[in-house]
């Protein structure tokens, strides 16, 4: 740049103008804002055009130093001089001050960043669901779990993880993202002393599914997916992933320390944020309750399909047992030859009933994998949202209120010390503690607003996931259609084989 200007060489006024009009979330100045500033100079369009020619900008923005150069050219032009970079080279003394009106009015020129850009999530469910899909498989011989990317956009890798690795990952994830929805982990073991009909094998399978839901919700979360902690857990192949995870967190700190707008969160929140939060929380609580009932019913249907499979198999086996009975018939049996023929037919029917049993078992697995599992993943998200709301109220909000209470007590002690003279050292110590407490309160207030900011975004995430209802209903209907079609086909094949059992169609209705 001709006529070089360094930040240290500009007058304080230049820096004040910059702070008044720069972007809230960026160190640059929007060209559109600068053009509004030019309109306050009372310079002719020709001169303004000359100034604009000598100012560097890119992609609609100009740097801090470009603005300083422009302010110097404006001041020189207001003195009646031809604005050019050469003039700046001759400015040996302090750069001249431009006439821009009241400094406090310059804030109005700044283009407020669109709240939707920062506060609102520009996501759709489909976009979230096409992110990495991670499969959790059991490795019984190692007593561990195997994380495998079956669909991925970033990592083509499989890693071995124990439950304790998940435990540490969950711990550091909760520390880093205390103001976000972090799904809970399933328990490591069945609780002792609790009556349960669940076998050890069923418990382990249920835990595997729950860990799969956990890691996929994390991998697809808009703010977790690109985080170094998540990348480490999904890709690190070293000997001690737990130490690596803890070290990674120590280097990064929590989200409040790294988020670029954490300390400005209050500026982006709507005035009625508390009312919005209360309304959304109540609505999501009701949605959670309804989805729990849907899941419970879907589980019962899947269980009934499995029970149906067992009943059909046993029904066929009993027919086979009946048909296999080779006992000779007593002479008083009215038609021994007919029963002999029937017995042979009954024995062969067990094959069809075994096929029917298999189809019913497949139906149960479809209902479990496609319907119940989709309901569970959304329920896990809803529960983690409720947990987040409690963390907000019992954590940062409660700490803020306690800090204010403590501050009030300190102030009363200070007033008492003023009325009743005490040693100077103890008064100074109390003053120092009051200052520290004021700083702590200020930080807590910032954290409280950032917590609300994150809650607002996480609430949106719940509503982004709500269309999963259509996925669940689609899976439910498709599983029923497929199941009934497959079962119907087997029943239709079985029907003609029963002809020999019913003389003159007695007891067998023709198929309509």
Structure description:
- The protein is 64% helix and 4% strand.
- The protein is mainly alpha-helical.
- It folds into 3 domains: 107 residues, Recoverin, domain 1 (Orthogonal Bundle), CATH 1.10.238.10; 134 residues, PX Domain, CATH 3.30.1520.10; 209 residues, Substrate Binding Domain Of Dnak, Chain:A, Domain 2 (Up-down Bundle), CATH 1.20.1270.60.
- Pfam families: PX, Snx8_BAR_dom.
Q: What's the CATH class of the largest domain, please?
A: Mainly Alpha
Q: CA-to-CA gap between the ends?
A: 90 Å
* Beta-strand residue fraction: under 5%
Q: Report the principal-axis shape.
A: elongated
Total number of helical segments? 18
Query: What does the radius of gyration come to?
Result: 36 Å
Strand arrangement within the widest β-sheet reads: 3-4-5
Which class do the helix and strand fractions yield? mainly alpha
Q: Roughly what percent helix?
A: 55-70%
What is the total number of structural domains? 3
Query: Any idea what the CATH architecture of the largest domain is?
Result: Up-down Bundle
Q: Biggest sheet: strands, sense, closure?
A: 3 strands, antiparallel
Arithmetic mean of pLDDT: 82
Stretches with pLDDT under 50, minimum 5 residues: none
Question: How many strand units?
Answer: 5
What is the CATH topology assignment of the largest domain? Answer: Substrate Binding Domain Of Dnak, Chain:A, Domain 2
What is the H/E string? HEHHEHHHHEEEHHHHHHHHHHH
**Can you say what the CATH homologous superfamily of the largest domain is?**
Arfaptin homology (AH) domain/BAR domain
Question: Keywords, please?
Answer:
two-stranded antiparallel sheet; 3 domains; PX Domain; 3-stranded antiparallel β-sheet; mainly alpha; 4% strand; Substrate Binding Domain Of Dnak, Chain:A, Domain 2; 18 helices; Recoverin, domain 1; 512 residues; single chain
């Amino acid at each position: 740049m001709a006529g070089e200007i360094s930040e240290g060489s500009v007058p304080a006024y230049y820096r004040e103008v910059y702070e008044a009009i720069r972007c809230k979330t960026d160190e640059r100045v929007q060209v559109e804002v600068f053009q509004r500033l030019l309109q306050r100079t009372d310079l002719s369009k020709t001169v303004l055009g000359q100034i604009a020619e000598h100012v560097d900008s890119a992609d609609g923005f100009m740097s801090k130093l470009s603005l300083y150069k422009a302010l110097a050219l404006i001041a020189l032009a207001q003195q009646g001089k031809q604005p050019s970079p050469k003039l700046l080279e001759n400015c040996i003394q302090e750069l001249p001050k431009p006439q821009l009106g009241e400094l406090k009015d310059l804030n109005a020129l700044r283009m407020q960043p669109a709240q939707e850009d920062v506060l609102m999530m520009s996501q759709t469910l489909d976009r979230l669901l096409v992110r990495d899909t991670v499969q959790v498989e059991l490795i019984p011989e190692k007593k561990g779990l195997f994380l495998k990317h079956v669909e991925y956009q970033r990592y083509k890798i499989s890693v071995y993880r124990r439950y304790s690795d998940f435990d540490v990952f969950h711990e550091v994830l909760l520390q880093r993202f205390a103001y976000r929805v972090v799904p809970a982990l399933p328990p490591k073991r069945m609780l002792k002393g609790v009556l349960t009909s669940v076998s050890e094998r069923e418990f382990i399978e249920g835990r595997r599914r729950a860990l799969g839901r956990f890691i996929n919700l994390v991998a697809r979360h808009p703010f977790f997916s690109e985080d170094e902690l998540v990348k480490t857990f999904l890709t690190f192949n070293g000997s001690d992933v737990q130490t690596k995870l803890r070290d990674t967190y120590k280097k990064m700190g929590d989200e409040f320390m790294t988020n670029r707008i954490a300390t400005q969160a209050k500026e982006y929140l709507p005035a009625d944020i508390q009312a919005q939060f209360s309304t959304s929380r109540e609505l999501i609580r009701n949605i959670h309750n309804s989805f729990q009932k849907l899941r419970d019913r879907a589980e019962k249907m899947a269980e009934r399909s499995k029970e149906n499979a067992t009943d059909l198999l046993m029904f066929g086996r009993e027919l086979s047992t009946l048909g296999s009975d080779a006992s000779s018939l007593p002479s008083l049996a009215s038609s021994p030859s007919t029963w002999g023929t029937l017995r042979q037919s009954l024995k062969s029917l067990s094959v069809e009933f075994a096929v029917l049993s298999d189809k019913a078992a497949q139906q149960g697995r479809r209902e479990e994998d496609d319907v119940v599992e989709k309901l569970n993943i959304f329920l896990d998200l809803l529960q983690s949202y409720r947990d987040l709301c409690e963390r907000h109220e019992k954590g940062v909000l409660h700490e803020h209120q306690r800090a204010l209470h403590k501050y009030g007590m300190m102030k009363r002690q200070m007033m008492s010390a003023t009325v009743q003279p005490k040693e100077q050292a103890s008064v100074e110590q109390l003053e120092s503690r009051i200052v520290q407490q004021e700083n702590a309160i200020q930080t807590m207030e910032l954290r409280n607003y950032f917590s609300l900011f994150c809650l607002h975004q996480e609430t949106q995430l719940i509503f982004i996931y709500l269309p999963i209802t259509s996925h669940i209903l689609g899976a439910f209907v498709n599983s029923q259609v497929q199941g009934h079609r497959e079962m119907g086909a087997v029943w239709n094949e079985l029907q003609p084989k029963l002809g020999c059992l019913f003389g003159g169609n007695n007891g067998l209705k023709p198929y309509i």
